[in-house]
Amino acid sequence: MINYHMHFSNVKGMLQHPDGTVLKQLQPPPRGPRELNFYNMVFGSSCHDHVFLELRKFLPKFLGTWTPTTAPNELYLKLEDVTRKFKKPCIMDVKIGKKSYDPDASAEKIQQQISKYPLMEEIGFLVLGMRVYQFSSDSYMTYDQRYGRGLTKETLKDGLSRFFHDGSCLRKDAVAASIREVERILQWFENQNKLCFYASSLLFVYEGSPQLTAMGVGDAPRKLAAPKGTKRTGEVVEHNNNVHVMNSSESRMVEASVGQSLSNMYALHRKGCFKAHQSMVPLHLKNAEQDRSICKCLTLISPGQPNGNEIKQLEKDLMHTSSMLQEPPEVDVRMIDFAHVFPSNTKDEEYIYGLKHLISVLRNMLDD
Ligand SMILES: Nc1ncnc2c1ncn2[C@@H]1O[C@H](COP(=O)(O)OP(=O)(O)OP(=O)(O)O)[C@@H](O)[C@H]1O
Ligand SMILES: O=P(O)(O)O[C@@H]1[C@H](O)[C@H](O)[C@@H](OP(=O)(O)O)[C@H](OP(=O)(O)O)[C@H]1O
Prior knowledge:
Bound molecules: adenosine-5'-triphosphate, D-MYO-inositol-1,4,5-triphosphate
Number of strands: 12
Order of helices and strands: HEEHHEEEHHEEHHHEEHEHHHHEEH
CATH superfamily of the largest domain: Inositol polyphosphate kinase
Strand order of the largest sheet: 3-4-2-1-10
Number of domains: 2
CATH architecture of the largest domain: 2-Layer Sandwich
Distance between the termini: 32 Å
Number of helices: 14
Structural class: alpha+beta
């Protein structure tokens, strides 16, 4: 599974391509070939099994494999970059399930994995890392895997809520939309008994940048000093996801053989086989969105106390804001990392346990 220190600084084995894909280097056997087989099975043109067809929408699109001309022995999975469409992507990787080792694991491997997070069995998930856009300072806060391993049942809700905190507000709109996405994945798991997923993750992404231009509230927020421990990120180097961005000469190395599989996939895409899964925010969540807009507006007003005219203007802006907030927040939750997917003939109860617990923790955040 993920090494988060890599993910949020420079993900080893993961390349970001300018064409909107990421390249994941195949891991050594049996993990790499297992993951490749899984993607081939789910995305293969001969796949007609509705369970797998349904699963496609929860995965990054698989666009075939790629081998650099300079390293003919290397093989990469070419995958849709899930973070691509976001301006300021907030990203969290959560390993799901009671066990982070598969049925073939040696006693030593089992011990190694359990000792990393003994609470996995009880909690059913583990936060591997987070990267959160801080609106007030226009910077990212990063949390590595040590942070997730430090979370206990008691601190889980607060620990996880950091992912939805932009420095001044809890993004309840993003929490609510994330719950809906996870529920759709849970529904798929409740209806399938063909596969078991070990040490696999959910990748959460939501838009961190405020959508204020449409509201006419004002310009970009004042830049504040970054809070202690916050790293400012170079957008060019880091792009969206901190994975290595290929330069133009590297990207020219993409081989023609991939073109064929790519065009097949894009053809499927045009046919609507890969439906984006944006969900509508239920009506009862509108208040949460309005809270959010109030928070944003207050952050944007000039320093010092607003005078009467400013308050009137603020009220006007808030009214306007509320009417503009019909759009659901941009949130994407995808399953990733399939090096330990095994055939089965029962429901994946341990993954389901993790999903349910995760949903309940997220729901608790909305109650605050
Ligand atoms: N399709 C994707 N789009 C965007 N980012 C991705 C995608 N797939 C993976 N990533 C990023 O790369 C990281 C590593 O991905 P993944 O867990 O699949 O790699 P891994 O090599 O199996 O990890 P590990 O070495 O820990 O087992 C993820 O945490 C995520 O941030
Ligand atoms: O996060 P860390 O501390 O780097 O630990 C790694 C993490 O648990 C990975 O998920 C795991 O790969 P798998 O999930 O594929 O087993 C890897 O096993 P490995 O050491 O056997 O590669 C561990 O080392």
